[in-house]
Amino acid sequence: MGLSKTTWRVLGVLxxxxxxxxxxxxxxxxxxxxxxxxxPPSAAVSLDQALSMxxxxxxxxxxxxxxxxxxxxxxxxxxxxLEYIPEPVFQKIITAQKRQLRRLSxxxxxxxxxxxxxxxxxxxxxxxxxxxxxxxxxxxxTVRAAPPTGEDSGVELTASERRLVDKAxxxxxxxxxxxxxxxxxxxxxxASRCADxxxxxxxxxxxxxxxxxxxxxxxxxxxxxxxxxRENLDRAIRSTEFETFERQRSALMAxxxxxxSTPFERLAMAFDLPREGEGLDPVVLDYxxxxxxxxxxxxxxxRCQQVADRLARTEAYWSQHLGASLAIALAPDPQRAxxxxxxxxxxxxxxxxxxxxxxxxxxSCAAADAHLKAVVASASRINSVDQPxxxxxxx
Length: 395
What we know:
- The structure is a single chain.
- Helices cover 58% and strands 2% of the residues.
- By secondary structure, it is an all-alpha fold.
- The chain starts with a helix and ends with a helix.
């Protein structure tokens, strides 16, 4: 089923390190080499190469000396790992995390807000999938038979997933469609209403959300409809926000943890949620990598350049980083690509310095609470597209 939800969140945290800090620094003494409007449209490196550039590393040959780790509500431990805590303690965190997510799911599904209920059903569905996998591992004879010819998966949706899909199909709330669609994309469950959901429909329900138009463009490309794909890309270019709603989902969980959990449970939740509230969507990454790099017609390169510029001017880290990386991939030659990569690395280093230690480096109770508060704050504003003048003001 591709990358898991947690995997792409972690990928986003590692990839998106630092664009916002530099754009918000005072003044702009020189033209910004990451301003995609300045880059002639031609591919020099792949999008994957561009995305993999920054990430600070220890000095070459640095010794990995044992260090004492103070873990929230746990006995002190020693480790030589630069980022992560000892495995026995981490397993306790995973156990506490699962227990807390199940408790939150039961609470959320009773909430009056449709989005909160949808998040609750998503968490319940995840738990049901884990239970089903555990049961099948304990008794392989319970594995269901292969699906009929033409089906993509032999495992149908869980009861909670089906409830979520049904609610989304009957709703005009794009957020519910975004929650439900990932549960449908790799399965063909005839008992569900997955056929009534699409990214095209979600984009039409939130017509100023460029992220949904990018997902809809990918959907049309997969369906062999190039004209609709181009129209959707143009809608993305004209959009004033790029919101995945993942920050809102993460903030909901972080806020609930802060209000009702023990310090160690809050630490467990902090490990599950990226500091920025979201990660990098691998579907959008893969789509833009295939759509916008390599042998691309000039008109389509120009369209991709506009997408890169739009993404690079947004508030959220994942979309900023993706826009800047796409500009690198569209660079006309290796020299230009290297200049863009160096600018991206500088931004990443500054962002990392301002953000402080990762929760794995400082798993204290205080750091966990600060991490969760940062997740809540990440959803305080819509991921809107800044105008060029905003960058010059250092905003």
